[in-house]
Amino acid sequence: MKTVKVNEQQVSVHDRATLVDVVGKVLDRDLEPDGRPTDGGRLGVAVSIDGQVVPRTAWQERVVDDGTEIDLVTAVQGG
Amino acid sequence: MEQSTQTMAPDHGSATGAAAEMSPIRVGDYELTSRLIMGTGGATDLASLEKALVASGTTLTTVAVRRYDPSTSTSVFALLERLGIDVLPNTAGCFTARDAVLTANLAREALETNLVKVEVVADEDTLLPDVVETLRVTETLADQGFTPMVYTTDDPGVAIRLENAGAAAVMPLGSPIGTGLGILNPYNIELIANRATVPVVVDAGIGTASEAAQAMELGCDAVLVASAVTRARDPRSMGLAMRRGVEAGYLARAAGRIPRRTEALASSPSQGRVRAEDRI
């Protein structure tokens, strides 16, 4: 197991976990390898690491290191 | 708007016709159907927000982009999707071009839209736009293929600069965010509307329906309201009032107001009066 930080919260995932695994676990949704929800809906979230957006299409390639700090954002009321 | 006018009585025929002609406008590649853009900020709950949005007839509504929080995961994105309302992510809360560009890119990735409401403020007290940073963001985002709708001051020179930098719409404030002070400088707003070749949207400061109408009478293409509706005692009624205000202002602008005069001008004929003193 390894531990990453998503929005300052610690999340434990298996050693080979990619961003698809991390996001799926935090959102508690089943995701396809390309990051889309298996239920056909839209996810409505984005990921950045070190201030760089990681496109959803790159999540499955991105194995996260132990201790990686991840920002996970979504739409909220505003504006 | 068409939906609302169809319920009018037939004897309002000419007004119905003109209102029905309130055509969509183009913001970059995007077709904006309703001239009333709504914001979701300030609503106390999603149920009252939904009623207000539906009553307003809006087709485009802003959201902010923030860290996902599982404890408040009731999704405004899901609500807008269910209502068939397009989402306009903003960069609210950003003080620098760098933050705003990152926020815009996160929004595009999360919400799958090139539309972005660029909002870079100078300080937390006034929430007035930082036009230097705003100009930088606009240039960068236009280069990155975004459709930037840019919140700015009511400075006509800045509006032109933003347009040249790639703004797909210029959105001057009527007055500071959340104040409800209405349009403090109608002369400038009219100047911006007259000179711009991209759509002009009054964004911020609108407090009530007559001010939304005024924005349209001044020649703006659309109005953006958030707090005025979401923080009204009855958000649904205010949403409807804003819709009617925008429609009334659009019609009045198209109809052509009479010139202002300094002296009175009677509208009844003076000839043919019956004078009491002639009969005594």
TrEMBL record, chain A:
It holds the Pfam family ThiS. It comes from the Bacteria. This is Sulfur carrier protein ThiS. InterPro entries: Beta-grasp_dom_sf, Mopterin_synth/thiamin_S_b, Thi_S, ThiS/MoaD-like. It comes from Rothia koreensis. Coiled coil: none annotated. Transmembrane segments: none annotated.
